[in-house]
Specification:
By secondary structure, this protein is an alpha/beta fold. It has 20 helices and 21 strands. The strands form four sheets. Strands 13-14-16-17-18-19-20-21 form an eight-stranded mixed β-barrel, surrounded by four helices. Strands 2-1-5-4-3 form a five-stranded antiparallel sheet, sandwiched between helices. It binds ligand C2E and calcium ion (CA) (2 copies).
Length: 549
């Protein structure tokens, strides 16, 4: 039997031909690496024939616990010689989800031929989307009859409007995707239905929603002790599948309105965090938010709320950290770093501020403010005859705005700042997205034509870093402080840093080491040939009043 000719009926190649017409067809070797795909598959998945060959099967599935577990489940089934059939969520090369009905057929090893697996798939994305839309309209989860997450949100908002006190309880079935006795999709549906019934019986008239495959929310006015009693109830009323009582582990988190959190989004996030705390500690409990998590979330929620309602640009400040150029022996660039001082919360540092601002969209205003300040300062230095550059951090979310280039050029024009006095720093996460979204790369190239340089920040912490150099107009790299910290204590790090410097320089890039704190680090990096040094050894970030040119 020649596995590359056909699949289950190799003597009749015509059958394969007709299947190829209607199905997406892929084949893998015994390791799960793709060895063949047809046109239908390439069209839907957006892979190119060159790149897809040799790619592991797992990469076609969402990079979530759910997606990866499903891939392993299918793989386990076929490698044990069983055909697998079911509905699967997959992702395109650019990360868009799509849904298929899949048949995975193992072709067992014969003689010298190794195992290979053929996958036949039909795209059912539009059906799934239609179902989701119907669900949204109907406000009902079609499988269990529980509320959908849309109805839940509406109900929570009604409760909040009516000023009702309630607990929002998040409940999840642990290890759902790897439950042994539940290989078929019918038994999984059965489990979800039975579990929903247990919830209904225990919580009676309380609103119950299904918010994920194995995730549920209950809104209740009962106290924690009652909610926790659900686990005992479940033990006393086990769920039977094929005459077996299923040993289920359930975890959950309780958050109270109004004491703990005040909006639907914040309640959901907090309940998820409380549940995660439980799962991380072994699961099998329903607990309220730990004091530590409560504090972190509260601070996050307060910062989020403040940013949206009361962020006064006057409370933002920009500090500047010098970058020492080894060849000229002078500081040639300063990096602009944002600070937010709030009367109640004190200083909020960027590591806390930026992720929240990226999530709620305020990053656009913050970014424009920092660039405006930096451009004003650089323009003054330039006017005084000191051509010192300022490096500004940017978020990919800012560049998702197709007007970003124009925004930047407008700021430079109103501040009279020459474009070559400004450079922009991007992170690897940014670079990754820029590679996928053509409009980002185009805007970057247009800015480079105007004279703005780009530096790749936190170099070495992401993956496939060198790839970006070919696609994006990057002329500088900043080796992350993580590597510099262990430079003198870890011989391996030393080799790695040396390699990064030599490789980057061979590609014509200007290399900056950041987080340099001691003379020894400084000297060693100099002998390795680094172009510039940034870090407390050269100078801490200071306000513009402290820098005179
Ligand atoms: P980054 O770009 O890697 O900035 C360097 C961070 O390391 C700064 O922290 C800086 O104060 C700190 N640092 C500098 N030298 C040393 C050193 O010798 N030792 C140690 N241990 N740390 C040093 P900061 O200001 O808290 O900024 C954190 C991150 O927040 C930045 O990392 C940057 O990614 C981001 N960020 C800061 N300002 C902005 C901004 O205006 N916009 C955007 N999008 N991101 C920003
Ligand atoms: Ca930076
Ligand atoms: Ca950095």
């Amino acid at each position: 039997m020649k596995p590359d000719h056909g699949l289950f009926v190799p003597e009749v190649p015509g059958i394969m031909k007709s299947l190829e017409q209607f199905y997406m067809v892929t084949r893998t070797d015994s390791e799960g690496s793709i060895t063949y795909t047809n046109k239908n598959f390439l069209n839907t998945s957006k892979w190119t024939p060159k790149r897809v060959i040799g790619t592991p099967l797992w990469q076609m599935f969402p990079d979530s616990e759910e997606g990866q577990s499903q891939a392993y489940l299918i793989w386990n089934s076929v490698t044990s010689g069983k055909t697998w059939f079911g509905t699967v969520e997959k992702v395109t090369r650019t990360g868009e989800p799509y849904f298929v009905n899949m048949i995975a057929i193992p072709i067992l090893p014969t003689g010298e031929e190794q195992l290979s697996v053929t996958f036949l798939e039909l795209d059912i994305t539009s059906d799934v989307q239609l179902r989701d839309q119907l669900q949204q309209i109907a406000f009902i989860d079609y499988e269990t009859g529980l509320m959908s997450r849309y109805k839940l949100e509406a109900t929570v908002n009604d409760f909040i409007k009516e000023a009702k006190s309630f607990s929002l309880v998040y409940i999840t079935i642990n290890h759902y995707y790897t439950l042994k006795d539940l290989q078929s999709s019918e038994s999984k549906t059965e489990l979800i239905k039975s579990f929903s019934n247990r919830l209904k019986r225990f919580f009676r008239d309380d609103p119950i929603a299904r918010v994920g495959v194995n995730e549920f929310i209950v809104l209740t006015s009962f106290g924690d002790w009652y909610v926790q009693g659900f686990l005992l109830f479940l033990e006393q009323h086990p769920i039977y599948i094929d005459n077996f009582a299923l040993p289920l582990s359930v975890s959950g988190g309780i958050v109270r309105y109004p004491e703990d959190q005040k909006t639907y989004n914040h309640l959901m996030k907090a309940a998820l965090t409380a549940t995660k705390d439980v799962v991380d500690n072994g699961g099998g409990k329903i607990a309220s938010l730990s004091a530590a998590s409560h504090k972190v979330l509260n601070r996050r929620a307060i910062i989020d709320q403040k940013m949206l309602t009361a962020l006064n640009l006057n409370n933002l400040q920009v500090v500047y950290q010098p970058q020492f150029d080894v060849t000229s022996g002078e500081v040639t660039v300063y990096e602009a770093l944002v600070r937010w001082k709030d009367d109640e919360l004190g200083y909020i540092m960027p590591d806390e501020l930026i992720p929240i601002a990226e999530e709620n969209g305020v990053i656009h205003e913050i970014g424009a403010f920092v660039l405006g300040e930096a451009a004003k300062l650089a323009a003054t230095w330039h006017k005084n005859g000191h051509p010192i550059g300022i490096s500004v951090n940017t978020s990919v979310r800012e560049f998702s705005n197709p007007q970003m280039k124009k925004k930047i050029m407008d700021i430079l024009q109103t501040t009279n700042c020459p474009a070559n006095c400004i450079q922009l720093e991007i992170t690897e996460k940014f670079a990754f997205q820029a590679e996928e979204e053509n409009s980002i790369a185009l805007q970057m190239k247009a800015l480079q034509d105007e004279g703005i340089e780009f530096a790749l920040d936190d170099f070495g912490t992401g993956y496939a870093s060198f790839r970006y150099m070919q696609h994006l107009p990057i002329t500088k790299v900043k080796i992350d402080k993580l590597f510099i910290h262990s430079l003198l204590t870890q011989p391996k790090t030393q080799k790695l840093v040396d390699g990064m410097i030599q490789f980057s320089k061979s590609m014509g890039l200007y290399v900056i080491a950041e987080g340099v704190e001691t003379k020894e680090q400084f000297e060693l990096l100099k002998t390795m040939g680094v172009n510039a040094i940034q870090g407390y050894y050269i100078g801490v970030p200071v306000t513009s009043d402290d820098i005179i040119y």
